[in-house]
Amino acid sequence: MVEQQSDADIDRVFHALADATRRDIVRRTLVSEQSVTQLAAAYAMSFAAVSKHIAVLADARLITKRAEGRVRLVSADPTALARAQDLLRSYEELWRGRIDRLDAILLEDAGVPASLPPSEPTEN
């Protein structure tokens, strides 16, 4: 079941996931919690740029940050990714249903009984 999310929440999630660096940060932090410094060292960009990517992901609630002394640790939130996956799955089901109905209409127009799969020839 798809949890009801506001359009703004959904927009933030997909905006955050639209960037390859942010997707990689999510992937890395799903594997293990990492410090912002560790993450920044993995990319050919400034610490500030990586921090901005992390802020976008945190705003979308795809990652969480916590302090351990002076170190900021980042970890991905699998439940947030599951919500995005559920939303995509609901759209997939919607479009599959529409395609199935379109197939049935086209088969009917072609004189093929709807109970037969399209690959099976009919005897005329």
TrEMBL record:
Q: Which CDD domains match?
A: HTH_ARSR
Among Pfam families, the record links this protein to:
HTH_5 (PF01022)
GO molecular function, a single term? DNA-binding transcription factor activity
Superkingdom of this protein's organism: Bacteria
Annotated HTH arsR-type domain residues: 2-96
Task: Give the residue spans that cross the bilayer.
Answer: none
Q: Supply the name of the protein.
A: Transcriptional regulator, ArsR family
